[in-house]
Amino acid sequence: MVSNRCKIAVKDELKKLGLHYIMVELGEVEIMENLSDDSLERLKTALFDVGFELIDDKRSVLIERVKNTVIEMIYHSNEVIKIKFSNYLSRKLNYNYTYLANLFSEAQGITIEQFIISHKIEKIKELIIYGELSLSEIAWKMNYSSVAHLSSQFKKIAGLPPSHFRQLKVKRRRPIDEIGNTNYEFIGLTEPIKWKAKKPEQARLQLYCSTYS
User: Fold this and answer.
1) Is 88 buried (19+), middle (13-18) or exposed (0-12) by CB count in 10 A?
2) Distance CA 153, CA 74 (A)
3) Best CA proximity match to 2, nearest among 26, 33, 28, 32
4) With contact defined as beta carbons under 8 Å apart, do 153 and 121 qualify?
5) Which of 208, 211, 205 shows the shortest CA–CA distance to 8?
């Protein structure tokens, strides 16, 4: 889940339905209740009305987790991006990267690398618009080997060099939900997982979601 607005929207809908969440974080919500079919349908409808869609296919859930992990790393990490994304994704999601890459490209029509590059360029636009960093500093922060490398990739994706983008009076950015064919906001539903709780009827329900705004 990308923005605080999206987190608040999900929390509000859960509260309206009387559901108790353990956490609402990027791409994952944990609910304590074991939902009946009727409760699940009400939850689907409530979330759909505020722009989310439940998905119950495990492959689709995993793809959304890949997207969320990339977006979290690029847009919400205060650290300099120095780790290889392939290693980061594999470790974070506990899947072999080759499997993730094949699954992602088959479903999305682009590679994970292309998805990452597109979002890195959008983040670079954001940093240029803020005007606090030089291109050299941005290149270092975004883990490019040089300004020339950044500029080449930026021009390939954005159609103009970053130096020209900086000079534009109106600096246009793409909505995040249009990058890499991510056209919807998803919440993916996994199977309920039994866990030890104070009340034996309680269970954990995990909702994976990605929201781009």
Assistant:
1) middle
2) 16
3) 26
4) yes
5) 211
Burial class of residue 114 (count of CB atoms within 10 Å of its CB; 0-12, 13-18, 19+): middle
pTM: 0.68
Instruction: Convert the pLDDT of each residue in 164-201 to its tens digit.
Output: 998 886 666 655 655 665 433 344 443 333 323 333 33
Q: State which amino acid sits at residue 37.
A: D
What the chain holds in terms of domains, given with CATH numbers, is 4-58+184-210 (3.30.1360), 111-183 (1.10.10.60)
Q: Are residues 104 and 111 in contact, defined by beta-carbon separation less than 8 angstroms?
A: yes
Would you say 67 and 199 are in contact if contact means Cβ atoms under 8 Å apart?
no
**Cα(43)–Cα(59) distance, integer angstroms:** 21
pLDDT tens-digit profile of 38-59? 888 888 888 888 877 776 678 8
Cβ neighbours of residue 68 closer than 8 Å, sequence gap 6 or more: 1, 26, 27, 208, 209, 210
Which residues are within 8 A (CB) of 195 and not within 5 positions of it... i.e. 6 or more apart?
A: 202, 203, 204
